[in-house]
Fold this sequence. Notes:
The structure is a homodimer.
Chain A (H helix, E strand, L loop, with lengths): L1 E6 L3 H13 L3 E6 L9 H6 L7 E3 L5 E3 L1 H9 L9 H30 L7 H22 L12 H10 L13 H11 L14
Parallel strand pairs in A: 1-2
Antiparallel strand pairs in A: 1-3, 3-4
Helix pairs in contact in A: 1-3, 1-6, 4-5, 4-6, 5-7
Amino acid sequence: MLRLYDSRLSGNAWKVRILLTQLGLPFERVTLDLAKGATSDPAFRAKSRFARVPVLELEDGRTIVESAAIMFYLAEGTPLLPDDRFLRAEVMSWLTFEQADLLRALALPRFYHLRGIGDQMAGRIADFQEAAYPALQKAEAWLSTHDWLVDERYTIADIGLFGYVSMAHQGGYEMQRFPSIDAWIARVKAQPGWVSLVEEAKA
Amino acid sequence: MLRLYDSRLSGNAWKVRILLTQLGLPFERVTLDLAKGATSDPAFRAKSRFARVPVLELEDGRTIVESAAIMFYLAEGTPLLPDDRFLRAEVMSWLTFEQADLLRALALPRFYHLRGIGDQMAGRIADFQEAAYPALQKAEAWLSTHDWLVDERYTIADIGLFGYVSMAHQGGYEMQRFPSIDAWIARVKAQPGWVSLVEEAKA
């Protein structure tokens, strides 16, 4: 069975979990406790050359790291990744844009706030926001005229952008500036098989 | 003919130019003057949804943005991108690692120094270096036991990591800390068809 190493709050690992669920692939979930330094453990480092989650372990024991690489691997041959060479490049362009321009700038302010050190890190958060607001505006512009990022249908590009963008407000981002992103987030969440980051409390 | 929009000093565009040359693909080069705001021009924005270089324009007028996406597109079916699904994921993992962990942290200090505002931006440069040194150490660890990043041969993963890493010293990084990276940079530069960022002065 596939095995996914994740952590409770990693947005990158969440993307992979959404995809695995939507593809109907059974997997074992191994949730690491990052606060206890689980990613520094030599046994984990042997699976993850970048010492972080997510890691997908295949049935033969080989591992794949980096959420975009894992998603491309898993989605191959499914409706969530186009076969067409140009459209695949489109998917990859959104995935690398998110990793280069948004990932750290959205994830780290969220992390600082969750750890209660948002005030202490205010200067760094301001630097991140200065860089990320224009990038969010580019996504907003695209989504103001498109329902989805690529080929007018839901693909792994949407999952890749969705992860941290949907949690950006937790890092102090004023997401009400971006109504088209907001509407797209609702469309992503409405996709069959979508799963929340943390399980909702049972009623 | 393929057309590459680049700028004189963009490392991401340089990667594409190295690849096009090594693949023997004829292309027209359109070098934008970023200081004059060329990427804000509406005609260019129509080609580049993220308003930056590189952009690859295909013969039918469609454009591909983001260096990793362009490289995957161009290298398809060539020795510079493995056919095997797992190895392709390995390539992508290095390309996204570079974009997420190194690109901005290496490129922006370099930019500040080239513009003569390195002292003014010292605090921000220190933040970038704090984040990027551990990432460089991960690449160093890999390259201390491997000649190349993927499949023990030269691929677009190497080109992707090479671009900004080879220029990191221009941003004040002490690259003598990383002897295995240094040796790998020499191997990349020795590949047939490699081209320098700026043409060397003719003797």
